[in-house]
Amino acid sequence: MNLRLLVQTLRWNRVRLLILMAASFGWGMLMPVIYVAFGDAFKGLVDSGVIPAELMSFGSGNFFTLSGALTLGLQHPMTIAFVGVFAVGSTVAAIAGERERGTLEVLLARPLSRRTIYLTVATAVTILISLVILALLAGQVAGVAIQGLSDELDLVQLPLVFVNGLLMWGAFAAFGLAASVTFDRHAPALGVTMAYLLVNYFLEILGSLWRDVDWTQQYSLFHHFQPGSILTGKVDLFDFGLLAVAIGAPVAFALIVFPRRDLAAPS
Amino acid sequence: MEDQQPAAVIHTTGLTKHYGKVQALVDLTLDVRPGEIFGFLGPNGSGKSTMIRTLLGFLHPTSGSASVLGLDIVDDSVEIRRRTGYLPGGIALYDSLSGADALDYLNDLQGTPAVRREELCERLQMPASVLRRKVRDYSRGMRQKIGVIQALQHDPVLAILDEPTEGLDPLMQQAFYSLMDDLRDQGRTTFLSSHVLPEVERICDRVAIIRSGHLMALQNVDDLLARRKRRVSLRWRGAAPELSGIPGLADVKTDGDRMTATLLGDVSGFVRAIASPSLVDLTIEPARLEEAFLEYYAGDDASEEVRG
Questions:
Q1: How many structural domains is chain A composed of?
Q2: Is the model's pLDDT at A256 over the cut of 90?
Q3: What is the pLDDT of residues B185-200, one digit of tens each?
Q4: Using the beta-carbon criterion (under 8 Å), do A110 and B106 form an inter-chain contact?
Q5: A80 with A196: CB under 8 angstroms?
Q6: Average per-residue pLDDT in chain A?
Q7: Contacts of A10 (CB under 8 A, 6+ apart)
Q8: The whole model's pTM is what?
Q9: How far is B240 from chain A (nearest CA, A)?
Q10: Bridge-partner residues for B258, per DSSP?
Q11: Which of A112, A113, A265 sits opposite B49 (nearest CB)?
């Protein structure tokens, strides 16, 4: 890893990071508010049979319990948009984007191995994703405290929620970086990575809304991010292991492919 | 210079690079000697950039081998890049950085003190006020100057420059040529790719001419020029005399008192042979690299891309 490259990469993302951290914090605070304001009403609607329970769920989250509300906040498209800026946008742009712009030339002219460049960028993205997730969790903790719900939340479990979230987003980031080192252009790398993320999301949502095909959720990385279960003391190490494999495979691919690739002059 | 230089700064043996069925470099064998400015000539698409990118480890050779500063281009490419300075063709820089920040950043990554930056900025007329501006506000020529500075600021033993004067105005081109002369005087080696022939003629000691990936010629510039035909024009008082017996003279055309011909070889012998009170005017055009170059490219459409 190269410290100067790492610092510069973080510096280039600092404004984006601050905005996303602020937005994530605010979004995190909102979930306990919605739970307190509408949780009982939603539960009443479901209990009355007016609305099927499936429609009140979203992925693995819901508004009936605090842990469900926090889970929903962590899996909501808004969160995907916030974290995806780095997990998808920055990873895809890191190599393929620089290559398309031509700036990878001057970087590769330095005495840096391609593996060093890859690992440095991966480290930078990990830091950026971590900070956004931490801001989101901090917002949730603040929202819980403001709503006076601290008794319902086991803060000791939050580090595990963070690790679980980081592993899931790390898996998408690793895929994005693998795409980035594979393609010469930004657009196909972005397309492939977005498709990967959307398919995973679709499988998770499909299974949560349509119980007959809830097996599809097992094939989604989102389903292996289970903050609700962790917050209630149920930790499934299989989820952590599977996400680690989902990170390891694209990382290994990138570390093998990138140094062996021919990088012809950008056209 | 701290580094011990090997006999050949760049040495390739049968270097070959294919992209699928396209042969970008074919069995290229050459040496670049320490302290020389070596011109690598060819039109666009002839394999110049492929050669440079292969030397720097951006591309992997299909077959053959090469070393730079005695280091293998496949196994030691990081170390090679530590000791060289590289100017990519049509350089792209980080637009959000100022010129000074871009140079700082690239030099930090290089990991070697920027001992020449001040001198280079002065010679290429990049004062601090200009370096404070964002790269996005730079003209093409200013970007090129930053490119040259970033390649040379750490005083590399070997500079690899791809089309170095592209976008530079004539004044800056002259400043660049002078810089190259000084680097040579200081024992630095430059490998320079170009299709601007007067530039190569002006600054290079030796040239390699490449055509469709094949090495067509590898010679001293002076030797190459000495073997070129020169165009001579003569004007006589009265009718032009018969000159057909002079060694090296050919294509003689006479039109009244005027005569044109081509001359190959010794000029002094020719001048002695034509010395006569009736000779009014004599013009011997200098041999041009362009002619040699075009000869190698005769019948090749690529020659149309060569600028004189």
A1: 1
A2: yes
A3: 999 999 999 878 888 8
A4: yes
A5: no
A6: 90
A7: A17, A124, A127, A128
A8: 0.87
A9: 56
A10: B235, B255
A11: A265
